[in-house]
Structures are given as C-alpha cells and as structure tokens.
Design a protein that fits this description.
The complex is a heterodimer of chains A (164) and B (759).
Chain A: E1 4-10, E2 13-19, H1 25-32, E3 51-54, E4 57-60, E5 73-75, H2 77-80, H3 88-96, H4 105-118, H5 124-130, H6 142-154
Helix pairs in contact in A: 3-6
Chain B: H1 16-21, E1 36-42, E2 48-54, H2 56-59, E3 64-68, E4 93-94, E5 100-106, H3 109-116, E6 120-125, H4 132-137, E7 148-156, H5 159-165, E8 168-176, E9 188-193, E10 199-203, H6 208-219, E11 226-229, H7 246-256, E12 260-263, H8 266-272, E13 275-276, E14 279-287, E15 293-303, H9 311-320, E16 330-338, E17 345-346, H10 353-371, H11 375-382, H12 402-410, H13 413-416, H14 418-421, E18 429-441, E19 451-458, E20 464-468, H15 477-489, E21 496-500, H16 517-544, E22 551-554, E23 557-560, E24 566-568, H17 569-578, E25 584-590, E26 609-621, E27 626-637, H18 644-663, E28 669-670, E29 673-674, E30 692-695, H19 720-732, H20 743-758
Parallel strand pairs in B: 1-12, 10-11, 13-17, 15-16, 20-21, 27-30
Antiparallel strand pairs in B: 1-5, 2-4, 2-6, 3-5, 7-16, 8-14, 9-10, 9-12, 14-15, 18-26, 19-20, 19-25, 22-23, 23-24, 26-27, 28-29
Helix pairs in contact in B: 6-7, 9-10, 10-19, 15-16, 18-19
The chains are: A alpha+beta (164), B alpha+beta (759).
Chain lengths: 164, 759
C-alpha cells in the first residue's frame, strides 16, 4: 500500500506523518501519537466515544480517513487542558458528577465544546441535540446536561481554534 | 449540622480529573512494546458439531505469529463461575454464534482479523434450540446432561388456601427481552509475561481475584504467578462479572512470550458477550376485594443461552423477588433455567429482580384496575413492614423502607396534581402516570461466603494508603471508599491514596456486583480504620505521655480531649520511621445472613434489601406510537447515603437504562441468528430520550451497614420499566405484557383500542 504524507495541527502542534492511507484519524491519534484519551466504542460512528474537534467542529474520528485532515486543526481531549488548567467544561463535568465510568467523557466534552464555541448560551434542547450522537450508559445524561449549562454560565470557554 | 464531615455530602469523584482530561488509562488503552493483537474466530453456526479445524493457511498469513485452538489449552478447557461448561476454545461442538473456535495472534490488529477468514472449520450443523419452552420439551440437547440447568420451587404457607379465600384471582404471562449492557468500553484488555513466567492481565473485570482462579485452572498454571489488574474500566453493569477475554489473553501471552492485546469489537461484544437473560413469567395472584394480597404463584422460565455463567443464580433471584416488596402470606414460586442456542444470559444490574419486578408490578396495576383501588394505595396497603416475613418466608433485616418510599411519591407534586400534568394540547397526544416498586437483595445471599477486606497504611507525611480489591467499574465505589476512610480517620479525601482492583497489591474484597460493594467494602474499611485509630492512639499516648483513653481524633491529628495538646499524623509517621516501624492495618468483614437457608436453592434468600419506588409521566403520540418519558421521580431507600452525588448518579443512570428496557432495547434472535448486530439497530436511550429525573431518597438506617448504608447500584433500574409501561397503559387504556413496547407495538395496540371504541 502506498503511504501518504499528511500535514495537520494536533492540539496546537504542527505534525507531519507518513502512514497507510486506510488509517482513520482515530487510529492515528491513538496508535501513532499514543493519545488514548480519545476512545473507540464502536468503530462505526454510532456511539460518539471517539469525538474530536476538526477545525472546531465535533466529528467521529473513526469515520475520518487520515488524508481528510490535511491542513486542518485537530483537538483531542488532551488538547483542551494544556498548561494544566482545565477547560470550564472539564471543571463542570467533574464538579456536577457528570462522569461515572468516564469512557464517553472525552467525546462528550468535545461535542459540548463544539456547541459552546458556536453558541455560548444554549437551551436544554440545543444541548440535547448537540450530544445526541454521544452515548452514555452510566449517567442517564441529567448531570451531563447540567454540567454543560454550568460551563456555559461560567462562560469563557477557551477558543480551541478553527473557523468558528 | 451533620454529625459527619464527609458521609452524606455530594462529593465529586476522586478520579474525575483523570477521566475529564483523558489521562486515565483504561485496560484497553494499555500498550506494551512488541505487543501482539489477538482476534477470536467465532462460530459459523448456532449449533453444530466440529469435524475439523485447519489453521495452516492462517498460520502462513502475513504477520501471523500463532493460531491457537483447543489443543493449545494446557489445563481445563472450560470455565464458568457456577458450572464449568463453557469452552475456552471449542473442541467438538459449538453452541452459539459467539463461541470461540480459534485465537489468532498477529503483529497487528489488521493482520489478526484478516487471518480469521483463512481458518477452515468443518461443521455438521445441528437442529437449533431457540425457544425456552421448547428447550424443556425437545430431544435436541445443547449439553449432554439435558437442557435444564436448574429448577427450583419454594413455597410459603398454602397457596391453594390463599386462592380459595381470595375475592379476585388474576393470571397473566409476561415476557422480557435480551438486553445488552452496552458498556462503552467493550470486553478486552492486555496481558504480559515476564522472564520468570509471571503473567499480568489488564482486563475489564468485576472480580479479578476470581479471574486468577479461572485462568490458573485453564492454563494449568500456578495462581501466584498470575496477576489481574482491573482499572480503569469503561462500565460493567454485570457483563464483566464472568470471564470474557481474560483466559485467552493469558493463554496468548503464555504461548508466545509476548504481550497480547484483545479488544472485542462492538459486533463481537453484541454476539459473544453476556446479556440480561429473557424470561417468561406467569403469575397467578389472589387478592381480597379490599386489595389485600393473599397468594402469589409464579412460574418462571429463563433463557440462559448455551452456558450457565451466572444464569441459574439469576433465575433464583427472579423467584425470590417474584412477589415484590410486599407481604404475601401464601406463595408458590417456581423457576427453570434452560440452555438454548441463543446468546449467553448472565449477570446484568438487577440480576433477575428486574424481570420479576416488571411482572409483579404490571400484575399489581391489573389488580388495581379490576378492583378500582388507587395503584399507590394498593401498594401501600401491602408494602412489607419490618419484622414481617418476606417472599420466601424469611425475616429481612429491619431496614425495610418500601412504605416510606411510597409515601414520598404520594406526597410529591406529580402525584398530588396528576390532573394538571396529564393535560395535553393536542388530541393525538395522550399522557399517563405510572408507578412501581421494587426491592433488591444485597450481597451474594445465604450459603456463599461473602466478605470484604481492606488495608490501611500510614504514609510518611501523615497521609494514608487505602487498598481494597473490588474494582470501581464506573459507579463510584472508589470515591465512597475514600469518603468512608476519611470519615473514620478524620482527614480529607485528598489525604487518602486509593489502590483498587489489583490482585497483587489489594486484598480480596469480593466481587463488584450484587449491590454489595459499598456496603462490604465500607464495613471492611471502617474496621481497618478503627484498628488504625487504636494504633494511632497508642503511638500518641506514648509520644504525649497520656493514657490512650484521654485521646480523640481531630483533623489530621490525635489530640488530648479538652486540651490543645496534640500530635499530628505526620509527626507519628516520622517517629515511626525513625524507629524503623510502620503502621499497616488489615481487616475483614463477613456478611450477616438470613435466618433461613434453602439446600435446594443455594444463595436464597438474602437478608438485607434496598427498596425503591418510582413514578413516570409519559406522553404517547397515538399517530406514531412514540413514547416520550417526560419526568421520573425516584425514591430509593439505600440506607444512609454515603455520597449524595453518587446516589443521584445511580438513580439517574438506572432510570434511563430501565427506560430503554421498557421501550426500545432488545437483541432479537431467530433460530440462534442475530437480527440486530450494531448500535444502529440495537438502540439505547440518548440525551434526547432521557427524562427529567428527580431523586428523593429515604434513608432507612441499616444497623449492620457502614454508617447505616445499604447497596443501591441495581435496584435503581428495576421499577422504572413497569412504571413506564403502567403509565402507557393508563394513557391509552391498553394492556401490555411484553417489553420492549416499541412504537410499532404501541401504534397497533392503540389503533385496535380506538377502532374498537369507534365501532
């Protein structure tokens, strides 16, 4: 298989990799860069556990082929809290009890981040729609919705880059 | 002001930061240098004889290091907690589509999965046992010994006398589906072996100490050379209680000498993983005209699939819970656990009580309707009270809070102002309110040894290490453990370093299951903490020159009562260090058991129960059959609450899981084949489906519990299912005896009802 070279930004750092073109963004994040905060729950875009930001928009990284990120900015959960300070969403998820097993948490936070980047004051319905592609089996979603509202109130969600 | 510093507070999880930042390494996140990937060849048929397995083409395939079959299993080629009837790798027969036939070990995941297609297996297909009633009759045997795994019948009083005295007898049969746990992290992990032959398995597990017994038995390998680490885990809900990938992981690393990773993909998890087992429950219930329950007769059949796992114990819990949390003088409760060629049935949050709750709570609404008695008053009239005999004739621990949980609902705005909430502004939208009660036996029940253990060590600087076995599979027992230790040792939760779920470093504290973990672990921690406290007093007494009985704990120090004289934990640790000593306290706690034991139904009954009532407001669109659950009010009695935030998390998560069971979740099987294999066709609730949930706890003090606590992890998903179904029945005036009640089902039932009205 002929390899491809892909240039993109990962959590603020410019990266250039030469890999098989059949790799997904999820595989590159986890296996090439060792960033295991991005989870695989189904591999088919059905659960949202692998959600990352691509130019500020939430995507299922298991459905993105690596060539599609050429020239784009990718943000994973590790990129939200660089320099040790938490994103308001991370802080509110911890505070409100929106985390149980935590396996859906990174993807859930990034879907919420994508929402707050374009809508700083979302309604309950807008929140539910934004995270409806992210399955959580532990929490029943109530505290997740509460956490996103709290983070929106606390405002000041850091810009994760991108077009928005 | 509360008498406690930590207990009862809403305390954020101790692992929240690691999980919110992506730092937490789950068992399937682990990677090691030179690691191989394993892929499992599953059966092609739901029931067939194996005539030959040919692996040479797969072995020659690119990147493949080894292909293992039954010949490579050095010890007992079978596992199972109750009966060892499930092969590690099948030899001469397959019994469901999830059976493991071969394990490919390759340099990459892609190479491993590609090679699966190159393994040739000669099968001779057999007739398939797919219906649980048929399983009792047919000549086709899933196992040599026949299709009945276990049959129990337990009677109390004289059920026929009860029926003779009854003014009304209702009889109905209820059907429950095969539900998937749908933990977001599928089954799997990584295993390594060192030069001395020590095997370490990182795996999703609810009882690593039992795993090493099962691994050792199948590998014919010394237990002391096997270590299982179960941390972090992306959900369990019972589905990681029995062995999943652990033995194959250990076998793979033993045979190749290299680290091996196996992670089941979602389809494998659905096909091969354990599920909530379907049941058919027939109830005959006799009642007086003023609503007093007199007699209840149950016949339960449980479709266990091809292997026992924990299935027979689950059937027994359904029997135990089949009359609900009520006083019923005469009962006759019978259960069968049968083999079929369907998916494996095993532990799932609620463990049989869930299925039984659906049946008895629908039955109570039927009685309420026939007698014209308010459903809440009917339940209140029959609610079990302290010192009354329960379903099986035993007297449970006197922390029976079911009546109080019902009173809580009765006083809630949603119940008091039903008329207001039932109004809709569209003629095709119909609303209903339904309620249900449940209880759940905590712990493993009579007969089985049920214990917890914990170790506490004083660290330099005055902090503590807390070591305890039972893993935190996501529900938050680790945080509860730290809160309990902080309470006993008068320090902050940040001062406790928790080690959990590692057979090498943490004491065996039993399984994370059976609503037992916070109770058992909590008691063990209190006992170990009290030993630590006595030791700290002894050291402080020596250092301060005062008698131990003049001392008390204050934050981070031992102080002389009514005085400023004190010595900090850090100073005690420093002194010990200089004397080349340290403080380590271990304690074990054994469960109290009921006053009754059934030789023919080991494990029954339980002694301590959690109780719960829940009501739901639903809105049904009769044009589409769609149901929206608008609001749920849950009143759990888990004894004293340790962590308010954890309790609410359980109540909310359990409610949505039980709502999915009521309305949408089912693995449909025809002749052992799967009709849905992924998360697009097996649907669980999303944020858009989840209702607003209010948790109003009742705290019925359990004298044997840690600070009065009981378990709650399972009961929370029981009552919501019949509460939702009862609400739909109330909204439409229809009868529902089978779940899930899908939009199609409801649409046609509603149409029939309205067509009848119109004609």
């Amino acid at each position: 298989m002929e390899k491809v070279t892909v240039n993109f930004t990962l959590n603020g750092d410019h990266e250039s990799i030469t890999v098989n073109p059949n790799l997904t963004l999820l595989e590159v994040i986890r296996d090439v860069f060792g960033l295991t905060g991005t989870k695989e729950g189904c591999g088919h875009g059905e659960c949202g556990a692998c959600t990352v930001l691509l130019n500020g928009k939430a995507v299922n990284s298991c459905l993105v082929l690596i060539s599609q990120v050429e020239g784009k900015e990718v943000t994973t959960i590790e990129g939200l809290s660089r320099d040790g300070s938490l994103d308001p969403l991370q802080a509110s998820f911890i505070e409100t009890g929106a985390i149980q097993c935590g396996y859906c948490t990174p993807g859930m936070i990034l879907s919420a981040k994508s929402l707050l980047l374009k809508n700083g004051n979302p309604s309950d319905e807008e929140i539910k729609t934004a995270i409806s592609g992210n399955l959580c089996r532990c929490t029943g979603y109530a505290k997740i919705i509460k956490a996103i509202k709290l983070a929106a109130r606390n405002g000041k969600t850091k810009d994760a880059g991108g077009e928005s | 002001m509360s008498e406690f510093r930590w207990v009862g507070k809403a305390f954020p999880r101790i692992d929240g930061r690691d999980k919110a930042t992506g730092v937490a390494k789950y068992v399937t996140d682990r990677v090691f240098p030179n690691m191989l990937w394993g892929a499992v060849l599953r059966s092609r048929y739901p029931h067939a004889l194996i005539k030959g397995i040919y692996t040479s083409r797969a072995e020659a395939s690119q990147g493949v290091v080894a292909v293992l079959t039954h010949k490579d299993v050095p010890g007992l080629n079978a596992f199972g907690i109750i009966n060892q009837d499930q092969p590690v790798l099948c030899k001469d027969k397959v019994r469901y589509l999830g059976d493991s036939v071969a394990l490919v070990l390759a340099e990459s995941k892609e190479c491993a999965y590609n090679a699966l297609d190159l393994i040739e297996v000669d099968y001779e297909p057999l007739p398939v046992v797919s219906d649980m009633e048929d399983a009792l009759q047919t000549d086709v045997k899933v196992h040599e010994k026949g299709n009945i795994i276990e049959h129990v019948r337990i009677t109390k009083g004289d059920v026929e006398k009860g029926f003779r005295e009854a003014d009304l007898i209702v009889e109905e049969t209820y059907y429950t589906p095969r539900q998937m746990h749908t933990f977001l992290e599928t089954e799997g992990g990584v295993a390594t072996i060192d030069e001395d032959g020590n095997i370490t398995v990182f795996a999703g597990s609810q009882y690593p100490n039992r795993d090493i017994i099962q691994i050792a038995r199948s590998l014919n390998y010394p237990m002391e050379k096997i270590r299982v680490i179960a941390h972090y885990i992306g959900g369990g809900f019972g589905g990681k209680d029995e062995i999943t990938a652990q033995i194959l992981l250990a076998l793979g690393t033993l045979k190749t000498g290299r680290p091996v990773k196996i992670v089941w993909n979602r389809e494998e998890s659905l096909i091969a993983g354990q599920k909530r087992l379907p049941m058919k429950i027939t109830l005959k219930t006799g009642v007086t005209k003023d609503g007093k329950l007199l007699a209840n007769k149950a016949r339960i059949i449980a479709d266990n699939g091809p292997y026992t796992c924990l299935g027979s114990a689950i059937m027994k819990l359904a029997v135990e819970h089949a009359s609900g949390p009520y006083y019923v003088p005469h009962t006759d409760l019978e259960g069968f656990s049968v083999y079929t060629n369907n998916c494996i049935g095993s532990a799932f949050r609620g463990f049989g009580a869930t299925q039984a709750t659906f049946a008895i709570e629908c039955q109570l609404d039927l009685i309420s309707k026939k007698l014209g008695i308010d459903p809440l008053e009917l339940r209140l009239k029959n609610a079990l009270r302290n010192h009354q005999s329960a379903n099986l004739g035993h007297i449970p621990s006197p922390s029976v809070g079911i009546a109080e949980t019902l009173e809580t609902l009765k006083n809630h705005d949603l119940w008091k102002n039903k008329g207001y909430y039932l109004k809709t502004d569209r003629p095709y939208l119909k609303r209903g309110i339904g309620l249900a009660c449940s209880h759940q036996g905590c712990g493993l029940g009579s007969f089985f040894p049920d214990y917890g253990a914990a170790t506490i060590i004083l660290l330099p600087g005055g902090k503590f290490t807390l070591k305890i076995g039972c893993p935190d599979i996501g529900q938050g027992n680790g945080t509860a453990f730290v809160m309990i230790a902080s309470e006993v040792l008068c320090c902050n939760p940040e001062d406790i370093e928790l080690e959990i779920g590692d057979t090498r470093s943490t004491p065996d504290s039993g399984s994370t299951s059976a609503s037992r973990t916070t109770y058992t672990g909590g008691r063990a921690i209190i006992e170990a903490g009290n030993k630590m406290k006595a030791n700290l007093f002894a050291e402080a007494s020596r250092m301060l020159g005062v008698p131990p009985d003049s001392l008390e704990l204050r934050p981070h120090c031992v102080a002389v009562k009514d005085s400023d004289l004190k010595v900090t934990y850090a100073e005690i640790a420093e002194r010990l260090s200089k004397e080349n000593r340290f403080l380590e306290c271990y304690s074990r706690f054994d469960w109290p058991t009921a006053d009754l034991e059934f030789k023919e139904a080991l494990g029954l009954p339980h002694f301590i129960y959690s109780y719960i009532s829940e009501m739901a407001l639903v809105e049904v669109n009769v044009l589409t059959g769609e149901v929206s659950v608008l609001k749920a009010v849950v009143s759990p009695d888990a004894g004293r609450i340790i962590n308010r935030q954890g309790l609410e998390g359980q109540a909310e998560g359990g409610t949505v899981m039980g709502m999915g069971y009521a309305l949408m979740e089912e693995i449909r099987q025809v002749d052992g084949q799967y009709m849905n294999k992924d998360l697009s066709t097996y649907i669980i609730p999303t944020a858009q489906d989840a209702p607003e949930i209010e948790t109003v706890p009742v705290e019925k003090y359990e004298v044997s519990g840690p600070f009065g606590a009981k378990g709650i992890g399972e009961a929370v998903c029981n009552p919501i299912t019949p509460a939702v179904i009862n609400a739909i029945k109330n909204a439409l005036g229809i009868s529902i005896t089978k779940i899930p009640a899908t939009p199609e089902d409801i649409y046609f039932m509603a149409k029939k009802e309205f067509d009848l009205l119109r004609s």
